[in-house]
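Hey,
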Amino acid sequence: MTTTHASERMTRSRPKERKRMRKSLATLVPLLTVLALAVGACGGGNDNNNASGGNQKGGAAPNTGQTGKKGGTLTVLSLGDVDSLDPGYWYYQYDYMALGLPAQRELYSWKPQDNFVTPDIAVAAPQVSDGGKTLTIKIKPNIRYSPPLQNRMVKSADIKYAIERAFLPQVGNGYVGSYYTSIEGVKDYQDGKAKEISGIQTPDDTTLVLKLTAPSGVLATGVALALPATIPVPNDYAQKYDEAKQSTYGEHQVFTGPYMIPNDASGKLTGYTSGKNITLVRNPSWDAKTDFRPAYLDKVIFSGGNDITVGSRKILSGQSLLSGDFAAPPTTLLKQMVTQYKSQTSILPSQSIRFIALNTKVKPFDNINVRKAVGAVVNREALRTTRGGPAIGVVATHFIPPGMPGFDDAGGNAGPSGLDWNSKPAGDLQLAMNYMKKAGYSSGKYSGPPVLMVGDNQPPASKTGEALQAQLESLGFKLNYRQVQHPTMLSKFCGVPKAAVAICPNLGWGKDFFDSQSMIDPIFNGKNIAPVNNANYAQVDDPAFNKAMDSATQLTDAAERATAWADIDKQVTQGAYIIPWLWDNQVNFASKNVNGVVNKFNSSWDIAFTSLK
């Protein structure tokens, strides 16, 4: 839910950071601490998802948001903006926080404390038949759209169109290629041979049927149907906006959740200024009887363009303020937060990872020994320090993070055995030089032309990129290093294969749901390489590798799925396509008068459950 998710991708984390089936959680990982801060791991121990009762082990009970004071205006301070207004595009953490969870409804969604999906527009879990190849979903009959379509009810045909438009290049969706291609008729639709996806059927207004070519574990359980591609979109209203080279539906969207962005009579949004602010007000069409969200607040303002240090201090000392896409605050402030502002701060594991992508289509990173050399020279501990040190997370050694199925089988904390270049958390220049010699550089250092590296221009991510720059220069690399805003880094550079960016240092990925397919498949399956909004940053496209992932997606047994994805994770690590360096915690913080609630799904504040004291 690509973690981080929007200043630094987490989906969903993550990024999205970004995005989450929780079927088998057994692994608890002890986290390093700062100033004796004890953080309980997800899946066990203390799990206080609040910023008012403390987050230390043995502290107050988790804030579930089931009770709260109604009314008031909350302001969320952020560095940047959502990546897109279009729900068909949403895949990043801040997209979910600002719009996905509070303003729209999917077939299935996430209560803050749960690690499993809850029916939202759907009445119940999918009915599975035909050996797992037919899914029948009944939807609620009385959900209405926001103005100007306030008299129109959501129909199954609207969800059908929403899924179909997610395959359109002008929408730029980043995950349907991972989770939805087993639906019959997708290929013909993508190739322009069909005007609709034949496997998405709507026998009546409240029934949706998915016909699959093969069983799909993430569709059958409903977890992939909790992604924004199932947010209903009325065809007759949206189609004219989808005909443009880049869809403009997001600027005219209608809402189904408790909140909406104000609009004019034609439906054009008036409560949004790019890069500056998003205003959410109550959706007059929303019926609380059909929804599990309490929606306490009357109004929410998302304010972008803030300096992280100034903004963080303003939140902690002010009133009715919440952190948005700040990720980790500066180290000095973080230390203050876990002492002076402990009751206003939530630091929790996020089942997400931060990594460096090495583009295998750009020289010299088409050479595996060069990639291994980079893996050897990177000082992961130093990179972690740029984000706040041990309190911010555990040094990563492979892709599946702690708390996710398959973590132990993939290598646990130590990582896969036998990979010397992957076992040096402080880096090893001499070992790196040995791999450069194997790659054909006789001096042990890079001697080719400058390579392009594009990263974030805001701390702490900018500091991470600068630390990496120094480490790579010690190995002889000459870098053309560009620092840009995070959304630009993704939408214009690292997420666009034609940009031919060799190194992307500021990437993160968060679970789409608690199933490790959502960690591995979007990033490493060759079929997911897309001209825009591409998440396979290293452009890995190995037929045998792709086949193994495709086979794993069809497994429906939780233990078998965990083992299969762990084996694939080992292959990812062995290929050195990316350099993992942090399994990170999510830092969320709020003003003293805010009763903040964190949603496990997104590892960030859940606006629909948060209230003022």
